[in-house]
Structures are given as C-alpha cells and as structure tokens.
Amino acid sequence: MDAQAHKALTAATCSMPGPVPLLSSLILTWLIEWAVCAVVLQRINGRDGLAVLAINAVTQPLANAAFNLAYAPWLLVEVIVTAVEIPALRLLIVDRWGQAAFLSLAANTASAAIGYAASVPSPLEVF
Q1: How far is CA 64 from CA 45, 73, 108, 111, in A?
Q2: What gap in Å lies between CA 85 and CA 97, rounded to an integer?
Q3: For 70, phi and psi rounded to 5 degrees?
Q4: Mean pLDDT, residues 101-124 taken together
Q5: Which structural domain, as residue segments, surrounds residue 121?
Q6: Domain count, the chain
Q7: How far apart are CA 50 and CA 119, in angstroms?
Q8: What per-residue confidence (pLDDT) applies to 72?
C-alpha cells in the first residue's frame, strides 16, 4: 500500500473521534471472525464466540494502534495478528495447530477484506 492509499484508508477509518469507531470496528471484526469460525468448524456456540471475542479484544485494538498511530504497513499488521491469533485459537477453540492456522488465516482474511472494503470511499463520495 503506497503512502497516499494509507493516508486515505487512515482518514476513512479514523473519521470519528473517541472510542466509537474502535468499538464498532471491534464488534464488526468479532462478528465476521465468529461467523468464519462457525463455518470452518461447522458449529456455532457461545463458547467459541466468547473465545473469538477475547482474542479480538486483545489483537484488534493493537492492530488499529499499529496501523493508525505507528503507520505500520497494513499487510504486515495483518500477518502479525494472524500469527498471534494462532496459539490463542489453538488454546481456546481447536485441537490441532494446522486447524488453528487455517482458522486464523481464514478469519483474518475475511475481516481484513471486509474492513478494507468498508473503509475505501466509493466513487460517489470522491465527487
């Protein structure tokens, strides 16, 4: 991502001051990643939902800070979050490392793609 794209993405994701955008971003991330978890594992339950929420409550604010405050490259932030979430998923949700790695990659790819799409201004907003 070049500097201009980073600036536009940062402006779009930080347009509202205070905790509201962070909380809404966390809720959206949690819902997306819990849905991916349910699809991948072919089950949906409150225990998995709470585990995904706990993991996201740690990694998502740190990812936001790294991207918005430290200007870390978006892809690097996502790779680190995916790697950090693997042991947490292994500990809290699944029994195998490979399953945890796939689940982390799938969940973070989905939430990153949807988050990115939601933050890019539409052509109508440009004019």
Answers
A1: 27, 11, 14, 13
A2: 11
A3: -95, -5
A4: 83
A5: 3-126
A6: 1
A7: 26
A8: 79
